[in-house]
Amino acid sequence: MPHALDIRIDRSAASTLAEQIRMGVLAAIRSGALAPGARLPSWQALAAQLGVARGTVKSAYERLADEQVIVSSQPGGTRVAEHPTAIRSAPANDAEVPELYQHLLSGPAVFQMGVPASDCFPVSLFARLRAHAARLEAMSPAVYPDPRGELAFRREIAAHLALARGIECRPSQIFVTAGFAGALEITLRVLGLAGATAWMENPGFFHSRRALELAQLEPVPIPVDDDGMDVDHGIERFPHAALALVTPGQQAPLGGTLSLGRRVALIAWAAQTGAWIVEDDYLGELQLRRRAAPALASLDENGRVIHIGSFSKTISPSLRLGFIVAPPDLVDRFTEAVLCLGSAPGPAVQHATARFMSEGHYMRHLRRMKRIYSARGDALQNILEGKGYDVRIGGLAALVRLPDGAPDVAVAKEARSLGLAPEPLSGWFAPGGVCKSGLLLGIATADEARLSLACERLHELVARHR
């Protein structure tokens, strides 16, 4: 007798129906509901039960058979394999990817952080610019591109930084990189601070914390409040640190702006001790509540601030476009590093983005997105506060507080099966210390058409875990 399967189908989820069925069967096997040798419903019967096409179930079964989770034989029907080895490891498409990093490889989903709104970008315009740049590149002589980045692009970045972030710099100080990660890697290599101590915001971006560790630095947690990183705490507890990694414009994930007093104190500490400050300007001027504060580097008269920016949140992370603004005394060292390691993306995407900026499209796009994101943030906050949640908008994320001890990791993991992609707040805190429970909901992907249903599903999910 075939075993009944309790599989939930969500037609609004980002994953395909076949993938949802596949994951449902795997979940039943993991839970013990389907033991080795247990018979599964025929794909025709399961299709009728779930209200999907028979080919959809057949596709899911074929994938499971390929993974040696189930076996199919004509007389005995489809059964769970006696030794379904595939379920003891991650699926092939995300094998070896730690839990904290899986959101980087997932498809677009409601509340996903770190990506802009794909439904509002001028796709056709940018595609034309990229196609034109690609044609010019194909017709150009075969030469090595400038590892610092294309000069036209670096000029546009320098002009934009002067206008929007208050940074006066020359194109020679700018180095184009493969996103923020590429910029941070090059920076840490140039500084060569292995064995030293580095200030790290707590809570703070866990990718950055791990990058410091991989560069053999010891990240030490510095608490954060509404005025950003507590600089006095850092000076008192870790005065001889060699580096401070900070998000002063909009602290990630809490959203506060580093106060002027703390900015001055941080720069003075670095000048006095010879420490370096790495400014992660991850949202740039994309401040929703007020005019963006000038970049920390704009106050630096001692050449201690290394400014890192990115186009991932404003255009697309798929471009892999980031940049470094090096202090004048470090330009030669950065030049040597990129000549040897070379992390800049191809020239075509740089030239296309340079034209996107020079023709005024980039600034118009940013002004439009600020209006859209502000409206989406307000709508999200109103809905969730109406359900009794404490909600705070910070940057392009809404922080939803949960009771201390609430399993925010489990909630976030289960939400992915519903086509939702909140991030657990607890993972942003330094390991071994006190952490708070909460969910971070991306505003950019919370479009109005799906917002009410998404909030209701999230509310039901949180209620089950209370």
Write structural notes for this entry.
42% of the residues are buried. This protein is α/β, with parallel strands linked by helices and 466 residues long. It has helices at residues 17-31, 43-50, 54-66, 102-105, 123-139, 151-165, 179-191, 206-214, 231-237, 260-273, 331-341, 347-358, 361-386, 408-416, 448-465, and strands spanning 70-73, 77-80, 174-178, 197-202, 218-225, 228-229, 243-246, 276-280, 305-310, 321-325, 391-394, 397-401, 423-424, 438-442. An eight-stranded mixed β-sheet has the order 3-10-9-8-7-4-5-6, with helices on both faces. The protein has a four-stranded antiparallel β-sheet with strand order 11-12-14-13, with helices on one face. Strands 1-2 form a two-stranded antiparallel sheet. Helix 8 (206-214) links the parallel strand 4 (197-202) and strand 5 (218-225).
Key features of this structure:
14 strands; alpha/beta; 8-stranded mixed sheet; 4-stranded antiparallel sheet; 14% strand; 466 residues
